[in-house]
Every structure is written in C-alpha cells, then in structure tokens.
Amino acid sequence: MRQFSKTACFDWSGANGKRQPGIALAICNADGGVQNISQNGGWSRILAMQWIKEQIDNHADILIGIDMSFALPFCDLGAYFPHWNDSPLSPSQLWQMIDTISAQDAGLGINILLQHHEISRHFRHGGGICGDKFTGGMGRLRTVEQYQHEIGSGRSASCFNLVGAAQVGKSSLTGMRMLHQLNGQIPIWPFDPVPDSGPCLIEIYTSIAAHKAGMTGNKKKFDDDEAMTEAIRALNGHVLKLPDAPIPNRPDKHVYDAMVTAAWMRQAARQHENWTIDEKFREKIAKEGWTFGIN
C-alpha cells in the first residue's frame, strides 16, 4: 500500500457566510507531529479549495480527508432523486448538477439549490418544513451508512436531513460543489484508484477517528487540549505540545476534530483493510462512494 508523507483533515461546514468557523485544517507529518493550519480571518470553502489546488499544483505527497459525504443515497431507491427525469445518474453528474444550479450562490453555497422546485421536495428543511418526498425517520442512507448501523460502528446521519446539530446535508452539498470544480484535477477515492504519486482525496468521518482514539459512549467530540493530546498520543505515540492559554485562535472543537483525525489517518492509511471494500458493494460504491476506515 502506498505510504503518504503527510495526511490532512478538513473539518467541513455548510454554513452561510463568507467565512465558515466550522472549517478547520490539520496536517500530520511523517514523524507523527500534528499541526493546526490556521487562516487569517478564518477558513472559507473557497480558501479550502484553493489550498487543495495548491497541493495539486505542487504534486504534494499528501492524503486529504474531508468530513462530508461524497454523494447522496442512490441504491436504496435506484436514483438520487426518484421519479424525476432529470435526476443525475452518477456522482460526477450529481456534483455538476449541484454546482450548476448553485452557480449564483457565492462561496460554494447551496441556498438556491435547496429552493429548487423538484430538489427541495426530497429534504427535511428547517422551520418545520419537510419535502413531500422526504422518506421520513432519519432520512435515506447510503449503503456505507446502512452498513455502519449493521456492524455497530456508529449512527450516520442522512444527507437529506438539513435540521439539527448533527445534520450533514448542507456540508455535503457544499462540498459536492467543490468536488465538481476539482474533478479531474485530483483522484477522489473510491471513484478513482489511489494514485502512485501526488495528492488524493478521501471521505472521512471525524467520529471514526474519535472512536479509534478511545472516545466512548455518547461523547464524540474533544473539548480540551488534554483530551486531544491524549487522543493523538494513543493514535501515534506523538506528544503534542500546545502553548499556554490565552493565545489568539485557541483551538476549538473543530480544530480538535481535525487534528485527531489527521493523526488517525496517518496510521489508518498504512492498513490495507481500510482501502479494501467488500466485493458485494463494488457496484454500489460507483454510485455512492464510501467512507474511509469503515470495513
């Protein structure tokens, strides 16, 4: 299995605005050291995409994980948007459609998309508004998310649910706009094979890293320096040292998630089983993708 010199994690956000406080980036180096990569004024989705493009231009030896879903459910009902003639047939078509409809939304936003006369019908929106094609319950799940439930490795949210702190729909839809704009410039696993050199994108869930680092029970977030440092030590033996508080841009829960996940990715990327998906899912991942580390 290819050994990447660095691993990076973006904790992602679907929030409105020019900058998204929920975006954080951390990099784990080959020696296990983890660094928070801050941005003056905070990260935005556009700045994040520009950073990824820099890795592409530099042919960086780096594995980049993004905390989002790379596609919508398809296999459960045979379509991303059932009973709609214009429903896309592949992830790349889905990304293109989302980006095209949202073209007038700045900052990779998706407000226009969620007002689309047909697409909006499939989502649970805020304010008690629920599309007539939303399936009820937690909403539709991809094959990988259904599999997570079956093996007891967590409960993933549905991209069709846009309500609540745990919703992943907005972050995933905004991220799909970026995937369309990056598509063809960087391999996106598992739709593309892992390249022999250069950067590669994968879908990750920070909660998986938290679990692997010893987070148990209902708690899925690290909320202080000590807990994060212990988690990183548990993952790769590296002792992280942070400056004493108070300092500007003190790490928050998003930074903690990104740093722990980047550390987990370093060792997880070296394990062949994390790149191996059961053959019975092969046709399904071509439509829906897969979350790295679920096996």
From TrEMBL:
It comes from Sphingorhabdus lutea. It comes from the Bacteria. This is DUF429 domain-containing protein.
